[in-house]
Structure formats: C-alpha cells, structure tokens
Amino acid sequence: MKRFDGKTALITGGGTGIGRSTAELIANGGGRVLICGRRESPLREVSEASDGSIGYLVMDVGSAEDRQTALAHVQHAYGRLDYLINNAAASVTASFADHNAEQIRRQVEINLIAPMLLIHESLGLINDGGSILNVSSAGARYQGMPSAGIVPYAAAKAGLNQLTRALATELGFRAIRVNAVAPGMTDTEIAADAMSDAALVDALKAATPLGRIGQPSDVSRVIAFLLSDEAAWITGQVIDATGGFWLSN
Asked: Which runs of consecutive H residues, i.e. helices, occur in the chain?
C-alpha cells in the first residue's frame, strides 16, 4: 500500500515550484490531486505528465466564485477531500514606502485572507482526520533579511502562522490537523527577482548552514510528511524548511 492511497488533495498554486512538487509526491504516493492556479499552461503540463492522477482547474484563489467552483469540482470528481494545501502566493519586492495601496491589499488578500476563506469554505467537505497545510515563509519569522523589502508579504504570512495555530485548536475535535511550512529562499518563480541578485543569493547562502538555496523538493518532502499518517501527532506547528537559515548568525 502506498503512502497516500485513497486520499484526495487540493493544492492552490499547483502548477509550478513547491505546489507542483507536492502534487507529484502525493500522486506518486497513490493519491489523487486537483491543482489550481491562474495560468492554464503550467497546470496542464503537470496534469498531462501524470498518469491521470493529477487534474487541474484554472482558479484565482482571491475569487469567491473560483474557490466555490474548485470545491464543487473536488466533490463531483472525487467525492472527498483529505488534504488542503494553501500554496498560492503573491509578493512584491520593494520598500514599504514604494508599495501602492493595491499591491499591499493584493498581497494580504492572496497570502492570508484567501487561504482563510478557502479553509472556512472547505470545512463541510474535508474529512474528519484530514489535514490542512499552509505554506508560510521564513520572512514571517525573521526580521531584516529576508523580510526586508517584502513587508506586506511577510506580515500576511505571519498572520497565516497564527491562523495555523489557532485553527489547530478549533479543529482538533474532528481530528483535522493544521500545520504550516515556512520555506527559506527557494528556487521558484516567486523568488525569480531575488534569485537574479547574485549578491543577495551569496548572502543567503552564507546565512544558511547547509550552504545552498532550497529547491521545491526540499519543501514538498516536508509537506508530504506533515500530511501523512507519519505525522499523526503533529498539529498547530510552523516548521522551518530553510537549511538552518540564521542558526549560525
């Protein structure tokens, strides 16, 4: 029997990076996955590369109509929801003074409000004993680098951390576990601007005991563990997946 046999997952931001890697791990472990995102091309690519175990749906997680459509699709196609992975994110790299109001609003909406609403809307579908996983950020846990220049993003992710802890206490009676993973710098599309800055990359490596930039698979393996029955006694936790970022500083 495989690790995720008979399980169904919904992953937002599932077409690239950490979301894609997580979808592939769950599917390879016997699960069925619906990945969602705003761009059809990468979603379709992931789905077509699978053995039919990964479906996709174009979705803006900030749209109430799109969220309801995704949940209805899960209900119709799979009849159950075991894992909800809130991975979609929005980030603008600029000083707080240089952010405009729309950029601030959008980052808080996508990184905090939309995951909160999607969890709320999914409570009637997710199975007792299921698992909710929020993808946070090291920027929500450390001052200065890496949160400098991404203040609205970092603040929203910090709110996501507290949402994780508070929901774990409320949903425990249904044996629904709620955890978060806080990646450090990871080589994904959302980090493309930062990854193009050689001096910043060198500084991040220097502040990381394992001495490298993370890959999506480094984070998705932690996510898969927290979703699985191997982590059945873990809830309300925000787990760093940073290569030890800042431990030696």
From this structure: 17-28, 40-49, 64-77, 101-108, 114-122, 151-171, 192-195, 198-206, 216-227
What are the Cα distances from residue 188, in Å, to 6, 57, 214?
30, 21, 9
Predicted local confidence at residue 189, as pLDDT: 76
- pTM for the structure as a whole: 0.94
Residues of the chain with pLDDT under 50: none
User: What average pLDDT does the structure give for the chain?
Assistant: 93
Instruction: Answer whether 235's CB lies under 8 Å from 179's CB.
Output: yes
pLDDT reported for residue 147: 67
Q: Which of 56, 83, 142, 153 is catalytic?
A: 153
**DSSP string over 126-160:** EEEEEEEEEE--GGGT-SSTTTTT-HHHHHHHHHH
Cis status of the peptide bond prior to 152, with omega within 30 of 0: no
Q: Which two tokens stand for residue 62?
A: 């900030």
pLDDT at 184: 87
d(C-alpha 74, C-alpha 7), whole Å? 12
- The percent of residues in the chain predicted with pLDDT above 90, rounded, is 81
Six token digits for residue 177: 């576990």
Please report, as a single letter, which amino acid is at residue 204: L
Contacts of 194 (CB under 8 A, 6+ apart): 93, 185, 200, 201
Which residue in this structure is represented by tokens 């016997």? 30
Q: Which residues pair with 180 in a beta bridge?
A: 134, 238
> Is residue 153 among the annotated active site residues?
yes
